[in-house]
Amino acid sequence: MYAVFRTGGKQYRAQQGERVRIEKLEAAVGDAVQFDQVLMVGEGADVKVGKPLVDGGKVEAKVTAQGKGDKIRIIKFRRRKHYKREQGHRQLFTEVEITSISGAKE
């Protein structure tokens, strides 16, 4: 069974036992977290799509790591104008392991 859930302004597709990197959450490593904004739950041809959320849909996960992603370099450059600006960015993330997915109530 898989689910599509929303957190941090993004949508993620996940299955039970899978590890997903999401936007940073204020949770310690080993904490249990719960996502209740589930957009879709399904398996094979049996798919339940919410309007916009699935009633009773829930994704539970355990925080496995907190960290920073790879560095992204931002460069602004104008040729022949003596203008060059460089900046770097590392996005913070939380890695979670999906422990259970609850479907919609009938």
For the secondary structure, the number of strands is 10
How many domains comprise the coordinates?
1
C-alpha Rg, in Å? 19 Å
Reported for the largest beta sheet, the result is: 4 strands, antiparallel
Report low-confidence residues grouped into runs of 5 or more: none
Strand order of the largest sheet: 2-1-5-6
Distance between the termini: 17 Å
Please write the string of helix (H) and strand (E) elements: EEEEEEEEEE
Amount of beta strand: over 45%
SS summary, helix count: 0
Fraction of residues in H or I helices: under 10%
Overall pLDDT confidence: 94
State the secondary-structure class: mainly beta
Shape: elongated
What does this structure look like?
There is one protein chain. 0% of the residues lie in helices and 63% in strands. The chain contains no helices and 10 strands. A 4-stranded antiparallel sheet has the order 2-1-5-6, with no helix packed on it. A 4-stranded antiparallel sheet has the order 3-10-7-4, with no helix packed on it. The protein is elongated. It has one domain (2-102). The model has no long low-confidence stretch (mean pLDDT 94).
